[in-house]
Amino acid sequence: MTTPATGTTACPNCGAAIRFVWAQAVQTTCDFCKSVLVRHGLDLERVGTQAEFPQTGSPIQLGAEGEWRQRNFVVVGRVSYQWQHGRWNEWHCRVSDGTSAWLSDAQLEYAMTAPLAEPGELPIPQSMQVGARYEWGGVRYEVANITPAVYIGTEGELPFTTSDKLEYWFADLQNIDGKLATVDGSETPPLLYVGEYVDFHDLKLKGLREFDGW
Amino acid sequence: MVAAAGSPVRTRAAGLNCPSCGASISLVTAGWSATVACVTCGAVLDAQDPNLRILQEQEQRILVQPRIPLGTRGTWKGVPWEVVGFQQVTITVDEVPYSWREYVCFNPYHGFFYLTEYEGHWNVVEKLRRRPDDRQADSSRLTFNGLAFRHFQSANAVTTFALGEFPWEVNVGDAVRAHDFVSPPYLLSAEVTEHETTWSLGTYADPKAIAKAFSLGSELRSPVGVFANQPNPHVQSARAIKRTFGFLMLALLVMFGLNMAMSSNEVVFDKQFQFDRAQGDTLALVTDPFDINGRVSNVAFSIQTNLNNDWAFFNIALIEETTGQAIDVGRQVSYYSGTDSDGSWSEGSRSDNFKLGAVAPGQYFLRIAPEGGEVNGGVVNYAVRIRRDVPSYTFYILAFFALLVPAVISWAPSASFEQRRWAESDHAPVSSSSANDDDE
Predict the structure, then answer these.
(1) How many CA atoms lie within 13 A of A52 on its CB side?
(2) Which of the pair, B236 or B307, is modelled with greater confidence?
(3) Among B10-14, B77-81, B92-96, which stretch is predicted with the lowest mean pLDDT?
(4) How far apart are CA A131 and CA B53, in angstroms?
(5) Which pLDDT does position B340 carry in this prediction?
(6) What are phi and psi of A180, to 5 degrees?
(7) pLDDT of A148-198, one tens digit each?
(8) What is the spatial distance between Cα B38 and Cα B22, in angstroms, rounded to a whole number?
(9) Is the model's pLDDT at B301 over the cut of 70?
(10) Quick one: fold of B264-390?
(11) Residue ranges of the domains in chain A?
(12) Predicted ipTM?
């Protein structure tokens, strides 16, 4: 256990410097020894080690910057999921107004969402029906699919801890205007994220991964 | 989640081999594909599995040669793409199989897009991330991006051949229910499986543009027939004709209106006469002079008689008083009626109307010499009425048809193109042989 300075602390496993880019982060991964660290007040607890990611080929990486809803964001963390037909990442973004948002890259179809506070009573994903309609924040959505997913890895700073979770359910909802909502069953009650599909160009991403020959 | 730290990051799934035939497999889409069909043996493999688990082996394999070989790079709308997958999809209508080919294209930043080809007709297809608006009374219509789409065809589409990488799980023999809606040059397609509905938007593309985009050495074949969302090449000219026709009709109407408004239609002469056949038919009468004023204009004569089963011939001369110049006209008026075994009949008319062209203003008189008629005919009462500057209808009727005929003729190719398009749909006219009973 070490005494963290403002924004900077040391890895309890290897002593490497740990810097939190996002003040509200509760979990991060040590760049050096890959220890998964959970923040308890001022202390960091090592809860495990991050395996190498099964690759997803995403061009997004930690430190990438972009633009959404006229605000800049920087990618500070990542959760990778596996579902029946593949993998995708939810990239945790710190937005310039201090809020947090998520950039998902399932099959390179990009979507940005942000948690919706006080959505009212939410159904758990397993109880929802494909085609059923819901309205949150004045926007109507229709359930497109409901699927279980598992964590296959995390890196960087996250607003929640992932170490105690295995599989849980998601429900994805869409509408005719390209908006989307995700009911995340990883917590009880479920969490609601709302946002929209975004065009790769419109995200104006910088600091992307480079691919040989592209 | 627990592994040794510092293991190398793979950037490409290199050194993989097909567990069915041993051929080497390269995964361009690194992590995004669900399945890969071995180029050598056709086995469908789980691209998400590190050992490329076999999902389906092909025993007897038909070979379909992609027109764009896998691995070909191209540029579409400024973005580079690589062709990574190819499948043939077949629908069967009236026991006749129809096949089209789909190419999966990949870019590591932009993801996937697709090309389809049927009988030389190409479409550039993107998967949609929002549903079209189907909240319409008529379920055969959809709205997307403000465009109205009409249902074209629904069919069970079966994958009959697959090669390379696919972002979904592809298996030869798998079927989806496909619904197509058209608004040329766009094609909205819904692929419905048990678990989900996927919408995509195709845009009709010129084969030359495809060949150029993918630097294909040989030319792609020319399209055969009319495709569902092929733009109607005549639609522009048909629209232009419609517009021109509308404009000319309007002009004609305005001219007609002006003509009506400006024509004075003034009665310059109106008198009753008697023709007593008992006095012989050589008697000519001369009227009092009357004035024809205003501009040079036409004059319309009307002769009303009380002839009944009788006829008469009127020699009429319109004579300018000062110069003595005459315009001579001879008109026969006859009217017969009666009843026979077929009922009552009549022939001819008791009145006669005719026009004279440009008549200059001046003082005129008429010389009228009636003659002829049935032997026992008695007195004929008749009235002669003259109006000057009367509106003319004939010109407008002729002009209307003169404009209508070329408009219809030039509209025909556009209509015939549409007819050929819809003959291939579920909504073909009943007479068409391609009418389809595929719908449930």
Answers:
(1) 11
(2) B307
(3) B10-14
(4) 33
(5) 87
(6) -145, 155
(7) 998 888 888 988 887 666 788 999 999 888 899 999 998 888 999 999 999
(8) 10
(9) yes
(10) Jelly Rolls (2.60.120)
(11) 8-49, 65-202
(12) 0.85
Concatenated DSSP letters of B80-137: EEEEEEEEEEEEEETTEEEEEEEEEEEETTTEEEEEEEETTEEEEEEE-SS--B--SS
Q: Residue B294: which pLDDT band, with cuts at 50, 70 and 90?
A: confident
Tell how far CA A146 is from the center of its chain.
18
Six-digit token string for B404: 């209508």
- A180 contact residues in B (CB cutoff 8 A): 129
What's the sign of the alpha-carbon dihedral A143, A145, A149, A155? negative
User: Cβ of B77 under 8 Å from any chain A Cβ?
Assistant: no
- Cis omega (within 30 of 0) on the bond before A189? yes
Q: Is the minimum CB–CB distance between A55 and chain B shorter than 8 Å?
A: yes
The span from the CA of B117 to the CA of B125, in Å, is 11
Q: What whole-number distance in Å separates Cα of residue A113 and Cα of residue A133?
A: 19
Mean local confidence (pLDDT), B353-371: 92
pLDDT of residue B61: 67
Per-residue pLDDT at B280: 64
- Residues B94-110: pLDDT tens digits? 888 999 999 999 999 99
Contact of B33 with A56, CB cutoff 8 Å = no
The B residues from 114 to 173 touching A (CB cutoff 8 Å) are 127, 129-133, 167-169
Percent helix, strand, coil in chain A, to 5, is 5, 50, 45
Place of tokens 């009943």: B430
- Domain positions in chain B: 13-228, 236-260+395-423, 264-390
3-state secondary structure of B439: coil
Q: Is the pLDDT assigned to residue A114 strictly greater than 60?
A: yes
Q: Give me chain A's average pLDDT, please.
A: 87
Percent of chain A with pLDDT over 70: 93
- The helix or strand, by DSSP H or E, that contains position B343, with its residue range, turns out to be strand B343-348
Shortest distance between the Cα of A165 and any Cα of chain B, in A, equals 12
Chain B residues with beta carbon closer than 8 angstroms to that of A37: none
Residue B201's DSSP bridge partners are B126, B188
CB contact under 8 A, B111 and A108: yes
Contact with chain A for residue B29, Cβ under 8 A: yes
Closest CA to A117 of A197, A195, A22, A191: A191
